[in-house]
Amino acid sequence: MGVVLALLGFTIVLFVSEFLRIDLSAILILVLIGILSYMPGLEDLADVNHLFDGFASNAVISIIAVMIVGAGLDKTGLMNRVAATILKYGGTKEARVVPIVSGTVGVISSFLQNVGAAALFLPVVSRISARSNIPLGRLLMPMGFCAILGGTMTMVGSSPLILLNDLILSANTGLPADQQMQPFGLFSVAPIGLALITTGILYFLLLGRWVLPGDTTRLDAAKGRGTADYLKRVYDLDANVFEVDVPANSPLVGQILADINHESGLYIISTYYRGKISMVQILTAEIAAPCRLAIIGKADVVQKFAEKYKLRIHPRLDVFAEEFATTNAGIAEIVIPPDSALVGKCPRELVLRKTYGLSLLAIHRGEETLSHVATEEHMPTQIGLVEFRPGDMLVTHTKWDNLARLKRNQDFIVVTSDFPQEELRPQKVTWALLFFAISILLILFTDIRLSLCLLVGAVGMMLSRVLSIDEAYRAVGWNTVFLLASLIPLGQAVQNTGTAVWIAQQILILLDGWSILALQAGVAILATVFSLVMSNVGATVLLVPLAVSIAVAAGANPAVFALTVAISTSNSFIIPTHQVNALIMGPAGYKVIDFVKSGGIMTILFLIVSLTMLNLIF
Q1: Using CA atoms, how far apart are residues 373 and 231, in angstroms rounded to an integer?
Q2: How far apart (Å, rounded) are the C-alpha atoms in residues 590 and 582?
Q3: In the prediction, which pLDDT does 200 show?
Q4: Alpha-carbon distance 519 to 523, whole Å?
Q5: Of residues 584 and 540, which shows the higher confidence score?
Q6: Is the peptide bond before 290 cis (omega within 30 degrees of 0)?
Q7: What backbone torsions phi and psi does residue 64 show, to the nearest 5 degrees?
Q8: What is the pLDDT of residue 224?
Q9: Helix (H) or strand (E) holding 242
């Protein structure tokens, strides 16, 4: 027991000081337990033949599978569709955007790891911020907090809850038959998580104006580094993106796109016709109506164009908002090398947009920029008829997946590098959803182990090529895997050596006369404090055996006390030690005081709501 207490103290010191990385600290503890178990008198500290069983535990395999399934859903671009839906129905009002975004993230994080759900929604929230002019700091914290809260809604939503059933089975080995605990089902905690998510949303709706920072740093995508800003700064092209309605009686109907671009000094880059968005592919095509056009040009030029052709300009991008989102598409610079097959050919001859997915905005040649858009120094140029020369810099608007493919084409040298270079596979979304649904149905309606159910979904996504096996390996957070697997032997040592029982007895002596509810509240507060200074996985492994021992000694339900720990280790809002908080801190420009201010009240609300729901349900 003395050795185990020393190891516990050493673990806490390593986690709090972060002298070593947390996952490395956990591996060090695993090695120490193994070495010490060979010493005389310490043989019972751990069974060295099963020291590494944690790596094959149900919890560890489940977490690996959840990460792969989450990566598969992301690879299909499904989250972009979710973002488009939120933008459509959320509008630009903070009171509408916050509950829609936060509620959606909360539900998603109940099935995916909460940090994964938050990471998927980070670009979504950035895009919403840019469109709605709501400061990013007023959206990211509600989203992040609800991602953490959503992890309490199912038994696969967070690492502590995935781990809990394994810890319960381990603790049962030291309990009499009449006190054996039953594992929790997938949705056993759903009412608790739902109440916590609702509390989080109401908290920010009612008190957000006072607890959220009002002026924070935005992501680059929201700093105005859009099409217009970039063209003006680099190529002196003073242009913006406008969305206009073309009615059926407009004189524009039937005219050739290329002619309109040249004559009007603007660039029609995309069309919306019969419910379908399409980047302009053939500039010799005629304009049909009623439709909408996405136009790049000067504000006064577009205004005169709209008056001439009886068009209505929208105040902001609507149907084209997703098309021009910086996570999907943007400005790319491409050089024509001397040996390119494109030299001597013009864009119209090459059908550049249809063939390569490039909307040509300008050609930068030497010190001259050729474009449809007039500048102070140059007249408009019909660039569709300009023959390419070696060294020409093409300024284009394109989707990032098209640009990723062009990097493999020797006729181009892609200069732009800071774009998402992983190719999405929207055609695989049906397969991804199918195998995700199969995993959930297996969990709900069969007795198959959780890890195997989730692996069915993960393997299915790889077999259907939603993900390659290498992409699946990269999707796994191996630091989390080693952290969890390495700490399991320490938790078992705390339980098997009687250390947990001894600590529980000491706590009961100190809390003599306290009611069971007060003891449960004490356990919840202890778990909350531990989760602030160390990983929630580590806190769960260390405290579940202790909580079970306290419950048994006090005559309470040990399963409820164990669940109290697993729920309360998600109560990490005051300081940015939780992975989700660390993720959103930089992009939103938050300071620690922002978390203290917003997270302090959330921590208290979490304790009140979770303890109330635990006692109402169990």
Answers
A1: 11
A2: 10
A3: 95
A4: 6
A5: 540
A6: yes
A7: -60, -45
A8: 38
A9: strand 240-246
Helices 190-211 and 137-150, axial angle in degrees (round to 10): 160
SS3 330: strand
User: What is the secondary structure of 97-160 as a DSSP string?
Assistant: HHHHHHHHHHHHTTTS-HHHHHHHHHHHHHHHHHHHT--THHHHHHHHHHHHHHTTSSTTSSHH
Mean pLDDT of all residues belonging to the chain: 82
Given pLDDT bands bounded at 50, 70 and 90, which one contains residue 332?
A: confident
Is residue 606 within 8 A of residue 202, CB to CB? The reply is: no
Full DSSP string of 47-86:
-GGGTTGGGGSHHHHHHHHHHHHHHHHHHTTHHHHHHHHH
Q: What is the pLDDT of residues 483-524, one digit of tens each?
A: 778 878 887 787 678 777 787 778 778 877 788 999 999 999
* Token pair in block for residue 14: 């390593």
Contact 153, 115 (CB under 8 A): no
Q: Residues 118, 141: contact at Cβ < 8 Å?
A: no
Rounded to 5 degrees, φ, ψ at 396 are -125, 160
Asked if residue 420 lies in contact with residue 327, where contact means CB atoms within 8 angstroms, the answer is yes
212-251 burial, b at 16+ Cβ within 10 Å, e below that, comes to bbeebebbebbeebbbbebbeeebebbbbbbbbbbeeebe
pLDDT at 238 over 70: no
Interior angle at CA 372, CA 367 and CA 377, nearest 5: 40
Query: Which single residue is written with the structure tokens 């099409």?
Result: 227
DSSP 578: S
In this predicted structure, the answer to whether residue 114 has a pLDDT above a threshold of 90 is no
Coil vs helix vs strand at 397: strand
CA separation (Å) from 121 to 45, 204, 293, 413, 618? Answer: 44, 18, 29, 32, 33
CA triple 606-139-125, angle to 5 deg: 120
Q: How many CB atoms lie within 10 A of CB 545?
A: 26
End-to-end CA distance of the chain, in Å? 33
- The amino acid that residue 522 corresponds to is G
Rounded Cα gap, residues 600 and 607, in angstroms = 11
pLDDT of 237 higher than 80: no
Q: For residue 360, how far is the Cα from the chain centroid?
A: 33
Q: Measured between alpha carbons, how far is residue 315 from residues 201, 241, 242, 312 in Å?
A: 30, 11, 8, 10
User: Is the dihedral angle over the CA atoms 62, 68, 72, 78 positive or is it negative?
Assistant: positive
Show the tokens assigned to 85: 């839906």
- DSSP type of residue 392: -
Phi-psi label, residue 555: left if phi above 0, alpha if psi -120 to 50, beta otherwise: left
Question: What tokens does 543 get?
Answer: 């405290």
CA distances from 241 to 273, 419, 421 (A): 18, 20, 24
